[in-house]
Queue: 4 jobs
Job 1
Amino acid sequence: MDLVDLAFTPALQQAELVRRQEISPLELVELYLERIQQLDGALGSYVTVAAEQAIADARTKTEALRHTPVDELPPFFGVPIAIKDLNPVVGMPCTYGLRVLKKQVATEDDGVVTQIKRAGFVILGKTATSEMGTLPYTEPNGFPPTRNPWNLDYSPGGSSGGAVAALAAGLCPVAHGSDGGGSVRGPAFCCGLVGIKPSRGRVSYAPLGERLSGIATNGSLGRTVADAVALLDVMAGYVTGDPYWLPNPKPSFLAATHTSPKPLRIAYCTAIPPVGEADESCTQAVLETARLLDELGHHVEPGSFPDVSELIEPFIIVFQAVLNEAGAPEFVLGKMNRWFALRARFCSCGKYLRAVSQTQQVARRIVAFFDTIDVLLLPTYLHPTIQIGEWAKYRPAKTLEKLLTGLLLAHRLTPADNPRSPSRLASPLTVSQLASN
């Protein structure tokens, strides 16, 4: 197989090639490390490349193939993966997008990293995130901006911007991300990938727990639906003491992709009250997706999304409280996070608790909306992908306004259908050009 084709081969197929010993874990790791060395200087998708650790792990797994029965191998044995730089990996720096932490090496794995290792993955390194994971573009101070492989003038989104840039450019076959307000789904939209933010409790936050009252969760990114759900299958699971959890699905998410679903009740809309209507190009993507779903035999009709006016302010209160609680000195933070942390200091404990309660109340109303439908189709963003530096120039209040008008979410949208998405723009360094190097 051509090496470029191999780099873009789905992770599940790579796992099968390893099992059949048509390719070794070491060969796969060396392929991706070479591509990272050649191409990532233009993208800035990785903040740490753990070449020595990855090669050592791959050699051990290559040797193990010789004497381990195939049916005893974990599902992704020998397949490389990248971890977002908000989750500690033992022996690697964990910066959280802060330059002062570039030399802070983790001494233990986060729980989701443990799950990923148990599945047999080889970790290539850590991917770039926006500072503290708070922004929809990945341009933290002290790091090069992360760029979209489809067009280097554009952002891959955030905060999982490094993960999607690496994945779209063939610098890893599958990637870990996380999402509180769109940090998996938005970047997936920007780069034409599959991104899944699982339901609260699907993926454990053990051992440390989480600080956003269930708003954020780890998620999966792939170039195919099968890869994304297979990664979710191995990340998911209850750990003793989790404050909320979901039972593992039967059949698994991956197994569900092999069966045709019954006709679903699907509603679609292109406006998010009270924010407004999506950009024309994003609207067209929703309408085209609705048409395709209708042709597949589902019951598709126009709908409307519940008014989320009462969710906006409490979400901001909970979100900004985490920045203040983290205790990072002001001088190490960018202007947006300094502003969030300052606002949080003037928020009483009572106001915070009321905000948590209100988010739960609004969530109940949204969940009740699904009593009569199975799927709600929305635009991922209400605007096209932004350029590098486009939002960084704004004052914090203006950036927050942009966040509220642009980062409302959806579950089913084909990013390449957006005529102004990066895949439709003239590009000095397109994915095809990256692949040919």
Job 2
Amino acid sequence: MPDGGLKDHCGVFGIAFHPEAAGITHHALYALQHRGQESAGIVASGEGGLEVHKGMGLVADVFDRSTLARLGQGTDLAVGHVRYSTYGASALANAQPLLVRYRSGPLALAHNGNLVNAAAVREELEGEGSIFQTSLDTEVVAHLVARLSDDGPEEALAASLARVRGGYALLALAGRKLIGVRDPNGIRPLALGRLGDAYLLASESCAFDAAGAEFVREVEPGEMVVVDRHGLRSTPALPPGRPAFCVFEFIYIARPDSDLQGMNVHAVRKELGRRLARNYPVEADIVTGVPDSSISAASGYAEEARIPYEMGLVKNRYIGRTFIQPHQEARDLGVTLKLNPLRKVIDGQRVVLVDDSIVRGTTSRHIVRLLREAGAREVHLRIASPPYRWPCYFGIDTSSRGELVAAVRDGEEVRRLVGADSLKHLSLEELVAGTGAGGCCLACFNGDYPVPVEGGGRLG
């Protein structure tokens, strides 16, 4: 469970030519809620035009029956979005999908990721007279498309994306078309599904399960898929770059029941836990994980080490991911409210605490203290990823490098800071071997960025 300072991705979903498009999108957004809890929105399209509803908060807070009935009336295409701000402030004006109207008609955009040159392109466009209504990098794409309105929506979108750099999964409703595009490096995930004759696009395959649909395949890096009345078409909109799928999807972001890069997320995390146990054994009485993203790795560690796995921490299910709170004070309070130690399990025990990552160290320090107050004799912290030393610019909005605890302290200093009896991280080599996926972005661990970033680390 990353500490305060890590902001999540967003989640996108789209469906084309299904009479229950709005309702299915609503269900899918519940499945993607873990990817963003600041705002949610749906734009639905029918022969009579577009319907839109967006709001701040969780999916359950934003949509009620009357709203869903209005969205579903006469519509059969829809795109939905759940957001945490990685670029642009947390405000209703920045809730997505973004709906704009220009000469060629309405255009709805739902975007997951970050465009690293958005500020420069925006400044150029403003200098030429463009007026922006939000602080979203998504709106940069909208303005670029509007300038190419004489072209078709597919051509305009492809040409616009050729002007920007970064990691993204972008969905668009343009006329009676659903369009999906994935960045040339494949940093952000995007998958294709099918429900009867309808096609679906989503950040994760778990959204297809919620919709009762089947997973077809992942959208390829640089690929554009278009669904219209004639069916599904695929075009190479952008030349593919160096493969760089975000490894943090495996470590933390994605739900364990999703499949990414042809692998189940739970199985990958469990393997990382096994590798932790083989490389960093310790004499202990119980193993426990930090709910929820570390449970799989903790179970793998326990099985490999032949130490009993116990539920040492109980999670309050009605509090969201603490790191997506917009302020540090709220994140700190969220940890206190969210996790409670099981004293009768922990008291007098030597505990192996497995977590997926350490960012600032604040959450880890708090959890170790909780375990000690509950009577733990020893707390050995095992992290199922390497030290997090470099900011991410492609969809996880980490703070400056100086605020990342492993970037400014060595392992022993971090151990003392969090208060553990021992602290060990999975090595970068073991992470790559454990994910089994070649071509992952590892920049948060080694500074090797797949896309040029001004002021960033090494570029590869």
Job 3
Amino acid sequence: MEELTAMPITAGIDVGSLSAEAVVYSPERGIITYSIVPTGANSRRAAERALSEALAKNGNSLKFGDLDYIVATGYGRISVDFANKAVTEITCHAKGASFLRPGVKTVIDIGGQDSKVITLDGRGKVTDFVMNDKCAAGTGRFLEVMASALEVNLTDLASLSRKAAESVPISSMCTVFAESEVVSLIAEGTPPENIIRGLHDSIAKRVAGMAGRLNIGEPFAMTGGVAKNAGVVDSLKKILKADIFVPPEPQIAGALGAALLASEMIQ
């Protein structure tokens, strides 16, 4: 315990629309622990729970009082009143992605209800970004609704997509209209895997359209919960004609970036 408290330890908390993540970090040990919890109806409570679970996963050898600095990010960052500072998620995702993939030039982040493309200078500094936070089109929530309409598990979308014989175009990216379109395709006897491939391609085209408004470049990295869907990643690789680095746990990039910034602030 003496060794743990002797070194600067920081935490980053990313409160998104669907999930909240906490990362505990130190320069000597890197990522010490992390957790991902549902946000629910109370952002502050979600932040508390995420941090408590992260600390508990470390065998209770760390307590809240051992943390030297906390940075909050995400759409619910203002509600995290126990944090020392709140920082925009654009900055935090860029910081986290640069740590996980040094030299990254373009970060694609697709979360629960928004998506963003961020360009960097290769040293972790944001040069530009574009964000869609007006609707759930092409986000994690969009995929949840489509999986429900298809009566398949969300985690099975990628494997089913890879079995598709063809990609069935989905003309609407509005969640409500796309769901109706999917239901109609099912009624017509269209194989579910072909519909899923079409959904993944539609999301990739939408993100590529956003990226086209920026001066993007390689290397690419993808963060956020949707990065866990290999079908979406495959479609993006095909459309962008580039490889895309996906971290082992892409959902914690924002919280990691917040923890890294917290470490810089106290040093």
Job 4
Amino acid sequence: MDKITYNEKYYVKSSEVDISQELKPSSLLKILQDLATEGSKIVDAGTDKTLDKGYLWVFSKLDLSINRMPRYQETINLSTYPNEMMHFIYPRTYLFKDLNDNLLIKATSIWCLIDAKTRKVLLPSETGIGVASPIKADPISRIEKKEVELKESRTVKYTDIDLNKHLNNTKYLDYICDLYDSSFFYINHIKKITIAFHNEVKEGETIDIYASSDNSYFLFKVNEKIVFECNIEYK
């Protein structure tokens, strides 16, 4: 276990929090993304074995439970480890704890490798990348679909895209949070986020953003094609 687990201490910065001094949802996803990058290195699946050879790690699902959001200037302990592989799927677990070892956040994500040119999902036999782990991943919650209405349309800009040349996964939660003003998050503290990425979105494309009346289900479409779904539960 120790050989496949990446650990680090993390200091929460001012640029990562909202006006309540709690970590923003998109900042949380950025930390998960960076943790996955560092975690992949210690299981011999870093950029030298992926990006340098024309393979891209792609985030497809996330199930995240929050006991408490980290706060501004708080130092926390982060850890991540891969889970037992399933065919071409690479699950990964993340733990956020305070310095007293209290669990703040637990998340499970699903990743796969794609060809950078064709965008085709690759099998481990095609890349030579297999991650051995004795730990089964927690099951990912199913997305609960609800009736929705169109809230906003946004065009993807330069600052929204990443090195994979598509809308970065952290931006989806920014788009959702921007549907509300700050007072909404004073009242509604997020306790669970479940995400499903269906299709990538490129620079210049326009996303139609839909939400349910109870603000718990979000649906993104590009040209009537579903690209993203999300459930959010509040305390």
